[in-house]
């Protein structure tokens, strides 16, 4: 799929206005679905959103970024809090927020062998060196998550 041509098609079909710049895939995006750059007018999109949620959700994200784009070039309020932006986004059925991608936060769970308390950590704990903070009991990696 040629992304720029797809964005041009969505712009004409859903807004009735022409998209005159470029659209790019940006693999470095983590939590956002896309970005609009007022300085040069291009749009970035997160390919993981398209791969995970499919074309229907991705089209709504394209509408969101195009709402920023078109309002900016019309001299209207193009930021998230502006009334013009909220109204146009509602009119074209765009997403206000990108859906959360799973596995954004994963934890290891350790269990105290003495008191049974559970301890969540993002990093691996050296079980020879560290003990439970409540009772000084030994820890083990737990299957509970």
UniProtKB/TrEMBL annotation:
It is found in: Cytoplasm. The keyword Cytoplasm applies. Zn(2+) binds at residues 64, 68. One of its GO terms (molecular function) is zinc ion binding. Residues 1-142 form the SprT-like domain. InterPro entries: SprT-like_domain (IPR006640), SprT_Zn_ribbon (IPR035240), Uncharacterised_SprT-like (IPR023524). GO terms for biological process: response to stress. One of its GO terms (cellular component) is cytoplasm. Its cofactor is Zn(2+). Binds 1 zinc ion. HAMAP family: SprT_like. Belongs to the SprT family. This is Protein SprT-like. The lineage of its organism: Bacteria, Bacillati, Bacillota, Bacilli, Lactobacillales.
């Amino acid at each position: 799929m040629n992304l720029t041509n797809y964005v041009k098609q969505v712009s004409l079909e859903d807004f009735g206005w022409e998209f005159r710049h470029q659209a790019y895939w940006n693999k470095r995006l983590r939590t956002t679905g896309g970005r609009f750059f007022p300085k040069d007018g291009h749009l970035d999109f997160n390919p993981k959103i398209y791969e995970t949620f499919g074309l229907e959700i991705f089209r709504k994200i394209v509408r969101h970024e195009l709402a920023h784009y078109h309002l900016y070039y019309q001299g209207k309020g193009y930021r998230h809090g502006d009334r013009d932006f909220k109204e146009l986004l509602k009119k074209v059925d765009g997403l206000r927020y990108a859906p959360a991608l799973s596995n954004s936060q994963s934890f290891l769970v350790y269990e105290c062998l003495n008191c049974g308390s559970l301890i969540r950590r993002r990093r691996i704990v050296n079980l020879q060196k560290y003990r439970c903070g409540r009772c000084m009991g030994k820890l083990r990696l737990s299957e509970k998550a």
